[in-house]
Give the backbone structure.
Amino acid sequence: MSQWLPFEWIAAVRFLREGRLQTVFIILGITIGVGVIVFMSALLTGLQANFLNRVLTSSAQIQLLPPDQVARPLRDADIEDAIVQRPAQRVVSIDQWPKIAARMATLPDIAMVSPTMSGSALAVRGDASRAISISGIEPDSYFRIVRIPDYLVAGNARLASDEIIIGTELAKDLGASLGDKLNIETANGTTIVLRITGLFDLGNKGANERNAYIALRTAQSLLGRIGAVTTIELTVHDIYAAETLAQQIAASNPVRADSWIKTNAQFFTAVNAQQTSNTLIRVFVALSVAFGIAAVLVVSVIQRSKDIGILRAMGTTRGQILRIFLIQGGLLGLAGTVIGAAVGVGGLYWWHAAVRQVDGTELFPLILQRELFIVTLILAPLTGLLSAMAPALRAARLDPVAAIRG
């Protein structure tokens, strides 16, 4: 088969075979480097996806709220400097909310729209009582934004006019379970009896103690705000464009728009830092691999100076000598990449199976992106070629007489 190969390929493979120890060590180094890149990239991608899933499935990506209520000073000729205090923010409805919700549904960047009515109340069962935050929702649309059904530990996500879904901690505090009835009282004196149809666990004790979900019309009646909504919940197609979109909505509508990026600023900063660290890991590992290949090939050029001189004396051109060492770099990069990718994936599967949360569920989702392997298979051999450039040029410039005399 070798008779069909160009001379440069035959010489490159022979040089690699003769320096087996060097070849094995450099392939091992590339394998470790590529394995680290694949393992860390997939691991960080899985952890990031897990964090984003936790944040984005337990709250809306954009919330439209009524503008802040502002007090205005009474102008009087005798008053020069009026002191204006911020008024208490009452529960008010979004003005013309059906029109705004319909407008949001027509925007191409918006995936889902759901109006909600929120307020404070007191949940009472027997002698026990707890302050809660109730959200009146339309289940069909709201549960596609906030995935409460995914967090249910008992019951179902059905919400009739006389039903309520509460957190596990609130149920524990009230000594309640599925099917039990709660008295819900508001500050305006309205009381209603609701039956528990579901218990959820959002993974946050505060939310499990405080949050409760009822039908939208029930909340409007309970809070004395018939036909009103306090929030319009939105999801978007591009989660990282949420803040820009929120600013555009607030500028063109009489509402205040808060994106998940703004309300979770620290989390978003952590996600960006994680992406930056992932990129830096790839860059530094790739540099270490490149310098390793270059160092080995430089040594190979020095060791094979006489062989290169003989080849040049026999008529081998400088271009052929250059290609011999470039092919060596490319072959080393390709071999190390294939083995390293396999090692990285194997290590990832082992880590995913071995490391679990306390309840036995997976610590992070296993995400293997095709793009990661395509980019790695392209860049690693390319890195090998670039690393071999300097040693290859050195070899091609050797004077054959001086090299033979060595």
